[in-house]
Specification:
The chain contains 14 helices and no strands. With about 290 residues, it is an all-alpha fold. The chain folds into 2 domains: about 160 residues, UbiA prenyltransferase (Tetracycline Repressor, domain 2); about 130 residues.
């Protein structure tokens, strides 16, 4: 059971939280039908993500054996055979598509786009510098679209832009953590790391962090936002966002973290408090 949990990575399902952005900022949490659609979309994305992880592990199992942490993964270590893993991955895909269709045909189409995007990533796009991180970001953006356009909620352009920048930040931070963890043998594990270096990544991370804070802050004080929510107090959530970004940078540079955003969120109490404080303040302001 432990090996299967490591293969499917249920802790990564926390990324499906992006599906709920539209529900939260679109004031749709009082609509039971929409809430049900969003919940189904989140479950579908969680299963689709597990299928993607299985596929990646099958393809990358030889390279994973060269990584200090990933060599313990079930396929790299031999705890699970590729055939069994493939069967489970296909089952996750079918379940994801079925549940997504129950949410709406649009959500199902977005899940298909997500799966195709990740197939392209696994088969070669992950080796193209910069594009690899943009594809990771696109996966998060599809989650946001599933919870907005997929269920009939108009997405805010400001929040889409902020979501894009924060996911680029997480992607480049992941590459920076990988460079540090592999210490000189990075390209042996992930070919694209040969084209990255710490200076470049630190600049890209800094740009994305600043852009995330600026775009979110501008969203909270925009006149359209105040008109939509009936309040101008959403700016009170900005300190939580700033602290969360700074804490993540601290973990990346001083605690050898940043390689797994989901794991960092679930294990670091400062990040947990920042997210909980942000969510509680948003709900308080918008209620």
């Amino acid at each position: 059971m432990t090996a299967w949990l490591k293969l499917l990575r249920p802790h990564q399902w926390v990324k499906s939280g992006f599906v709920f952005v539209g529900l939260l900022f679109g004031h749709a949490w009082h609509d039971a039908a929409v809430v049900q659609q969003v919940l189904l979309a989140a479950v579908a994305f969680s299963l689709a993500a597990s299928a993607v992880y299985v596929g990646n592990d099958i393809v990358d199992r030889e390279r994973d054996r060269q990584h200090p942490d990933k060599r313990r993964r079930p396929l790299a270590s031999g705890a699970i055979t590729p055939g069994l893993a493939m069967a489970v991955g296909v089952s996750c895909v079918l379940a994801a598509l079925g549940i997504a269709w129950l949410a709406s045909p649009a959500v199902a189409a977005i899940i298909v786009a997500y799966l195709l995007l990740n197939i392209g990533y696994t088969l070669g796009l992950k080796h193209i510098v910069l594009l690899d991180v943009f594809i990771i970001s696109a996966g998060f953006m599809l989650r946001i679209l599933a919870g907005t356009l997929g269920v009939g909620i108009a997405p805010s352009h400001w929040l889409l832009l902020c979501g894009f920048m924060v996911t680029l930040f997480l992607g480049f931070a992941k590459r920076r953590a990988e460079l540090k963890a592999l210490d000189g043998d990075a390209s042996g594990h992930r070919q694209v790391l040969e084209d990255y270096d710490p200076v470049l990544l630190d600049k890209l991370i800094g740009v994305c962090a600043a852009a995330t804070i600026v775009t979110y802050s501008l969203y909270t004080v925009a006149a359209d936002t105040a008109a939509l929510h009936g309040t101008g107090r959403l700016f009170a959530t900005v300190p939580f966002v700033v602290y969360g970004m700074f804490r993540y940078l601290f973990l990346l540079h001083r605690r050898d973290g940043g390689g797994d955003p989901a794991a960092e969120l679930l294990s670091d109490r400062h990040l947990l408090i920042a997210v909980a404080g942000w969510l509680a303040t948003v709900l308080l302001v918008l209620s």
